[in-house]
């Protein structure tokens, strides 16, 4: 029985030794790979996938009639996302159209009046010429009778009659001139009124364009190819202009990673460096990337309350520099990386910098 226990103990000891050896070898291999990785790469796990996530904003208020999208739906540029009741905006457009037609009718009336006044002014001008000729003829007559009266060839009554006729002709001439000036003034007034109506038509047409835009804004469309985010609106809901209705992820732009490297890691980084990216969601796959920019300041410098080290309570903390990395590859492959995913970034240290 004792011999049997000895055999069992030796077997357990042997198995334990093999297991310990395997663990030691695994730890040694892990250590070698880790040290090699630290030597070859500047790496960080403080990195996330980013992409343009833009709000869908209502440019017109009203009741929602229909919602044409679902959460996470793929949409194309120009696709209808939702429809707002447009009856009030359509009525405003119709009222403006009616006002334009009324002003255009007033403009036609004014143009007709101006034409009539121009004819009246032309007639008054003709009367001036006739009255002036009568005055000229009567002045000669008066001069002749005055000479005859001086030679006692004409009576004083005849001279007075000629003079009275001259006064009447002068009065008619003055009246004709005043009539012409009045007609000219009425033409000027009518033309000024015409300019006012024309300006009103321009204003009303601009207002109509605005109302037509409001009608168009009641149909909210996708601004680009993308994928819809969370849906928070339903038919019958009242919304205001400027309200955010949903979010859309832009598929027409690049996808990138923001890697927050320690300040001690960025001394040799350059724009254009190639990068290896491993997502936590796909640990067995590697994505390629390219450094496209380094932040001009540390992340803490952009915070609402940047740290002030002049207070005397200084504790040295290694700062982080955001590095923007474009994800390269086919769109169908990189679309698996979703906004906000955590990734590990490996930037080879030895890269040629021309």
Structural features:
OB fold (Dihydrolipoamide Acetyltransferase, E2P), 354 residues, Helix Hairpins, alpha+beta, single chain, six-stranded antiparallel beta barrel, Elongation Factor Tu (Ef-tu), domain 3, 48% helix, rod-shaped, 14 strands, membrane, transmembrane, four-stranded antiparallel β-sheet, 3 domains
Protein topology:
Elements: H1 2-40, E1 41-50, E2 53-57, E3 62-67, E4 74-75, E5 80-84, H2 87-150, H3 156-217, E6 219-221, E7 226-228, E8 238-239, E9 244-250, E10 256-262, E11 274-279, E12 287-294, E13 320-328, H4 331-334, E14 342-348
Helix pairs in contact: 2-3
Polypeptide structure, described:
- With 354 residues, this protein is of the alpha+beta class.
- The chain has 3 domains: 55-85 and 219-249, RNA polymerase II/Efflux pump adaptor protein, barrel-sandwich hybrid domain (OB fold (Dihydrolipoamide Acetyltransferase, E2P), Beta Barrel), CATH 2.40.50.100; 87-217, Helix Hairpins (Orthogonal Bundle), CATH 1.10.287.620; 254-303 and 315-354, Efflux pump adaptor protein, beta barrel domain (Elongation Factor Tu (Ef-tu), domain 3, Beta Barrel).
- Helix content is 48%, strand content 23%.
- It is built from 4 helices and 14 strands.
- The strands form 3 sheets. A 6-stranded antiparallel β-barrel has the order 1-10-13-12-11-14. Strands 2-9-7-4 form a 4-stranded antiparallel sheet, with no helix packed on it. It has a 4-stranded antiparallel sheet with strand order 6-5-3-8.
- A hairpin with a 7-residue loop joins strand 11 (274-279) and strand 12 (287-294).
- Helix 2 (87-150) runs antiparallel to helix 3 (156-217).
- The longest helix is centred in the middle third of the chain and has 64 residues, at 87-150.
- It starts with a helix and ends in a 6-residue tail after the last strand.
